[in-house]
Design goal:
Order of helices and strands: HHHHHHHH
Number of strands: 0
Helix content: over 70%
Shape: globular
Strand content: under 5%
Radius of gyration: 19 Å
Number of helices: 8
Structural class: mainly alpha
Length: 213
């Protein structure tokens, strides 16, 4: 599951490797507005890119795992799908970290990350002591990813790097305008085309990627 999630993230990371230095360079040159605009625009592009890979993998995961592993272990399918879901909001999380590095304001982010990790560990300990299912690991990780991407990081940018709430909300709207219909149409493709054969899986892959594009 982690290998699949990391493979998707590496593709997005290549794009960010080209963009992040430009964001930092603009900030260092005193062009704070230009750095901000590039950050927000690249956040949308990064989000769209990860959807382009994440959605086909999410819906065709059973086909991929049976082709790759032959004998698929218990929980592997559902774990892999949830790891992919976690990677989608992480696109925003990673993008919003760059202006913090550019401004040197990373202390608050580090404190939030430590507190969040300890809190997650405590919550999972209680859940497992009460007999909770192993899938709670994935549920809590997804909640943490969403909170960091859409609440914690924007709050830090607002407080420490002078980003406006409205412009960040507009960035999120742009992301959700693509994500919601893409998920809906991808699900319809999966339901009506399927993944039972190579031909069906190939057709589903092409149609889902076309929908995201």
């Amino acid at each position: 599951a982690s290998q699949i999630g990391n493979g998707i993230w590496q593709f997005v990371g290549s794009f960010r490797t080209a963009i992040d230095p430009q964001i930092i360079k603009l900030y260092a040159a005193g062009d704070y507005e230009g750095s901000k605009k590039l950050t927000l625009r690249s956040a949308v592009y990064t989000f769209d890119l990860i959807l382009l890979l994440a959605l086909p993998c999410f819906f065709l995961m059973n086909f991929i795992l049976n082709l790759w592993l032959v004998e698929v272990p218990d929980y592997c399918l559902i774990f892999a799908q949830w790891v992919i879901l976690q990677r989608i909001p992480a696109a925003i999380d990673g993008t919003f970290f760059t202006p913090m590095v550019a401004s040197g304001r990373i202390k608050r982010n580090a404190l939030f990350a430590i507190a969040s990790s300890l809190g997650m560990l405590g919550i999972l300990y209680v859940i497992f002591k009460l007999g909770g299912d192993v899938m709670w690991v994935q549920y809590i990780c997804l909640i943490q990813s969403v909170c960091f991407s859409f609440i914690v990081k924007p709050y830090i940018l607002y407080k420490d790097v002078n980003y406006g709430i409205r412009e960040m909300l507009l960035c999120f709207v742009e992301c959700f305008k693509v994500m919601i219909p893409a998920f809906a149409f991808s699900y319809l493709v999966y339901r009506f085309v399927g993944e039972d054969t190579f031909l069906q899986a190939g057709a589903s892959l092409i149609l889902i990627m076309a929908v995201v594009c």
